[in-house]
Specification:
Helix 5 links the parallel strand 7 and strand 8. The chain is an alpha/beta fold and about 350 residues long. The N and C termini lie far apart (about 60 Å). Helix 1 runs antiparallel to helix 2 and helix 3 crosses helix 4. Helices cover about 25% and strands about 30% of the residues. The chain contains eight helices and 20 strands. It is globular. It folds into two domains: about 210 residues, ANL, N-terminal domain (Rossmann fold), CATH 3.40.50; about 90 residues, GMP Synthetase, Chain A, domain 3 (2-Layer Sandwich). The strands form four sheets. Strands 2-1-6-5-7-8-9-10-11-15-14-13-12 form a 13-stranded mixed sheet.
């Protein structure tokens, strides 16, 4: 059974492995390795065992982290779909710089083992290319990692980026690089990405580009306007998300934001992620908008900025609609993030109380 999960051409850090040798390496990682290597070792052992599933942790960006069961057959299908979509065949050189405790890092390992890639591993830090001195055909990063790697991005031919929204400033940074940069849409339940869009295509310099789904994946909307995903190759049941979208077809959609984040202020629905796009050019520090309880409006819109410098809070709101202008601005140096670097809006806002607003 495990033979089908390990391509004979697979290499890890320049070495080829048969199943028994890879299991020994995994045990060494668990016993002697750094924390990121320990996570790799644990996943390799679970991938190569006789079970038909693995247990995977969700990141907890929109709720409590949980552990879910994923079928190995579905993970193999996902790996093959990625290989086909990006033209990544046997002997593709790839770099793993994401933590393997979560689905994005696990799937880099699965793609390499199933498709026969030559995979190198570096610590999953903020600037993963800092000590890299060779070129790779493929890699995956978070937006935060990409932001710290633009100067050395020429070392990667094709890069997928997920785990959080792409800021407008980051899009500008990669607009003219030679690397083909793709934003991905997906989650643990869909075994990594099910939709992709090219960020720095010369054809798409104007306007917002919709996501296009991968092969055998179709999408629709529920009564909330949230995305429903049908991807039988990677999920036995449709996946009902909390992501509000604008649907163009059963294959194309524009992501608007999380329904969990939607602010109902006096009967007006406000989408924080859309407001943040308008404010982003003025702020070089992390920030977000959110709703807090208000006796008159039900919820009022507030802006939270990660800074101790109150001058950062002096913004021009002329590009905002009148309902989008924050009713209060908070400054704090203590934003709360998940282990994968995703902002926890609710927890950060709750931790502000009581706080003096600007």
């Amino acid at each position: 059974m495990a033979k089908n999960r390990l391509h004979p051409a697979f290499q890890l850090n320049g070495k080829s492995y048969k199943i028994s040798a890879l299991k020994e390496l995994a045990q060494d990682y668990i016993r002697l390795g750094e924390p990121y290597e320990e996570a790799i070792g644990e996943f390799l052992l679970s991938w190569l065992d006789d079970k038909n599933h693995v247990m995977v942790n969700t990141s907890g960006s929109t709720g409590e982290p949980k552990t879910i069961k994923l079928r190995k057959k579905h993970m193999i299908n996902s790996a093959k779909a990625t290989g086909k979509y990006f033209g990544l065949d046997e002997d593709t050189t790839a770099l793993l710089c994401l933590p393997s405790r979560y689905i994005a890092g696990k799937m880099m390992l699965v793609r390499a083992m199933v498709l026969g890639w030559r995979l190198d591993v570096v610590p999953p830090k903020a600037n993963p290319l800092d000590q890299v001195f060779k070129r790779y055909e493929f890699s995956a990063m978070t937006p935060f990692q990409l932001d710290n790697s633009v100067a050395r991005l020429h070392l990667i031919s094709k890069l997928i980026v997920g785990g959080g929204p792409f800021s407008e400033s980051l899009k500008e940074l990669v607009a003219d690089v030679d690397t083909k940069v793709y934003e991905t849409y997906g989650m643990t339940e869909t075994i990594s990405h099910i939709a992709v869009k090219r960020i720095n295509s010369k054809k798409n310099k104007e306007g917002e580009v919709p996501f296009r789904t991968m092969s055998k994946v179709t999408v629709s909307q529920d009564e909330r306007g949230c995305l429903i995903i049908k991807a039988p190759k990677v999920s036995s049941d449709p996946v009902i998300t909390n992501d509000v979208v604008r649907l163009f077809s059963y294959k194309k959609f524009l992501w608007l934001g999380r329904v969990d984040n939607v602010i109902n202020s006096g009967g007006i629905k406000l989408y924080p992620e859309q407001i943040e796009k308008k404010l982003a050019p003025q702020l070089e520090v992390p920030f977000f908008v959110a709703g807090e309880e208000d006796d008159r409006l039900g919820e009022r819109l507030v802006l939270v900025i990660q800074t101790d410098n109150v001058d950062e809070a002096k913004l021009d709101y002329s590009l905002l609609d009148k309902y989008e202008v924050p009713k209060a601005v908070y400054c704090t140096s203590n934003f709360i993030y998940t282990e994968t670097g995703k902002l926890k809006r609710g927890a950060t806002l709750r931790a502000l109380k009581p706080k003096e607003q600007v």
